[in-house]
Specification:
Blueprint: E1 3-5, H1 31-42, H2 71-78, E2 80-84, H3 91-100, E3 105-110, E4 128-137, E5 142-147, E6 150-155, H4 157-163, E7 178-183, H5 192-207, H6 215-230, H7 234-265, H8 272-297, H9 305-324
Helix pairs in contact: 6-9, 7-8, 8-9
């Protein structure tokens, strides 16, 4: 059969996870984390149970950590494992085979062909982005996929473009990075107290992996050095810089706060101080993004005092969590 489907989903009626609804500070985080959140949610799991990793983002020389779910935490909580798929035949054939076997496929595609990016990248810009495929129909040239905040469909020329399925690829075109999600035999997703206990254990592990020094202070030092060239980088350069910096840690700390709020709903106390401090960082990072954009447009040097306040909030959050542990 040319059609394969795992979940019976409709983009018009799909209900997004709570982290992609309502009054969020950052509507999107990064393409990989967002798509895994939506995939786990659609499979009936609570992604927030394995979200402690968001606490450990760091300033990594010239960018903030591109944060992703640790595979071991996903396996422990949800009894599913992510494996890399080694492509040796046309991409659409791999995707069809694994989806037909009940395994969602996470694959890097070109946003030029993703209609959910209308207004930003669709038929405008070639941007690599990760999607999770739930449905593929080779004859009808139709794809159902999770991307960013939700579930979507594409067809026709976009299908052909995504998969280069009509001989469009040139010899130098390298295959994308591909993974598939596979249930662990003999295991079931954790529930109730077992799930909460595992989540607390994961939180403890992540606290042992915190940056050794305050990463926001290190970022401020580098941002001050970057302001000179950033003024000449143009709007596109600013957006690229902002995505790798302010958006990454702002979104990460909002997810970390959501994780702590979920633990509180599960009956865990002593987390409110850290949660509030993390949200202050996230809101301030968003405000700093707008202030920086205005300053760059007017070719003015922005005041970065907000980063000092964010750094103090980071100390407060991590001290509170470490003391509780």
């Amino acid at each position: 059969m040319s059609a394969a489907r795992i979940l019976n989903l409709d983009p018009a009626t799909h209900v997004r996870h709570a982290t992609h609804q309502g009054d969020r500070i950052w509507a999107e985080t990064n393409c990989y984390t967002d798509v895994v959140i939506e995939l786990l949610h659609a499979l009936g799991f609570e992604p927030l149970a394995a979200m402690a990793f968001a606490l450990t983002v760091d300033w990594d020389v010239d960018q903030w950590t591109f944060f992703k779910f640790p595979h071991e935490d996903v396996e422990e909580q949800f009894a599913v494992a992510l494996f890399e798929l080694a492509p040796w035949r046309p991409l659409h054939e791999h995707v069809h085979a694994h989806v037909a076997a009940g395994r969602p496929v996470l694959v890097e595609l070109d946003s030029w062909f993703l209609p959910d990016t209308a207004g930003t990248a669709h038929h405008r810009a070639h941007v690599k982005s990760t999607v999770a495929v739930n449905h593929i129909d080779l004859d009808a040239q139709r794809l159902g996929y999770f991307h960013n905040q939700g579930y979507f469909e594409l067809e026709g020329d976009d299908f052909v473009g995504c998969f280069q399925s009509e001989g469009l690829a040139h010899p130098r075109m390298l295959p994308p990075y591909i993974e598939f999600l596979k249930p662990i035999p003999g295991r079931a997703a954790l529930q109730g107290k077992d799930r909460t206990d595992a989540s607390l254990a994961q939180l403890q592990r992540q606290l042992s992996r915190l940056p050794p020094t305050n990463p926001i202070r290190a970022f401020k030092t580098q941002m001050q050095a970057d302001l000179g060239w950033l003024q000449d980088a143009g709007l596109e350069g600013f957006h690229t810089y902002s995505f790798a910096t302010l958006r990454q840690y702002g979104a990460a700390y909002e997810l970390a706060a959501s994780h702590l709020a979920w633990l509180e709903r599960c009956g865990v106390d002593g987390l409110s101080t850290a949660q509030e401090a993390l949200l202050r960082i996230s809101r301030s990072a968003k405000a700093t993004q707008f202030q920086l954009a205005r300053a760059m447009a007017r070719r003015r040097t922005p005041v970065l005092d907000a980063l000092d306040e964010q750094a103090s909030a980071w100390d407060q959050a991590m001290d509170s969590l470490s003391a509780r542990a």
